Amino acid sequence: MEKEYYIVEGDNRVGPLSLTQLADKGIEPSTLVWTAGMADWARADSVPELASIIANHTKIDNSESAFGAYAQPQQPQYGQYQQPTMGNPLNNGGNYGNPPVNWKTLAIIATVVGFLFSCIGGIVGIFAITNASKAENAMRYGDNITAQSAWSTCKTLCIVSFVLSGIGLIVNILTIMNVISVASFMPQAI
């Protein structure tokens, strides 16, 4: 099986690409490259097997990565295809689509709380969990647009579920208070 490479073009990760495809792209010596087995992203002119496809080959010392924003992507596990994700230099090296809050955990909590106080809140929470899973899968395969959309939907559904749960809690408390006040006015058996 031929090695597959990923390169950075602007702020985007492109790949997987074969050596032939890299040659067709006309990569520069300064193009950032990564392939399985590499510790980090590196300049193309520091990767020996790319020397033949780079017109102006200049060897550099790459003992330490100067490309912190382009940290090593995740490698596939157990034969499952998984595209590496690259840090975004515009958001301090975080992964595209990575939510700042773990909305999947909050979706699960919203579902449980929703079923405790309001069935509708629990049902909305289930949809939030579904969207969180969709976002995680999209991130795993590098589909950042779908991931962002699913995280946004998950966030909205979590908030709706918590609001419905809060309304259900208030209604339950008012119902219990009403039952207690009605019971206090009932004649007592002697």
Please, could you describe this protein's structure?
This protein is α+β, with helices and mostly antiparallel strands. It is 45% helix and 9% strand. The protein contains four helices and four strands, in the order E-E-H-E-E-H-H-H. It has a four-stranded antiparallel sheet with strand order 2-1-3-4. A hairpin with a 2-residue loop joins strand 1 and strand 2.
Secondary-structure map:
Elements: E1 5-9, E2 12-17, H1 19-25, E3 32-35, E4 42-43, H2 103-117, H3 119-140, H4 144-185
Antiparallel strand pairs: 1-2, 1-3, 3-4
Helix content: 40-55%
Overall 3D shape = rod-shaped
The N- and C-terminal alpha carbons lie at a distance of 91 Å
Q: Given the structure, what is the number of helices?
A: 4
| Helix/sheet category | alpha+beta
Please tell me how large the radius of gyration is.
Answer: 27 Å
Low-confidence stretches: 56-64, 76-99
Topology as a string of helices (H) and strands (E): EEHEEHHH
Main beta sheet, described?
4 strands, antiparallel
Strand content: 5-15%
Mean pLDDT: 75
Count of extended strands: 4
For the biggest β-sheet, the strand order reads 2-1-3-4
Give a summary of the structure in a few sentences.
This protein is α+β, with helices and mostly antiparallel strands and 190 residues long.
Features:
4 strands, alpha+beta, 4-stranded antiparallel sheet, 9% strand, rod-shaped
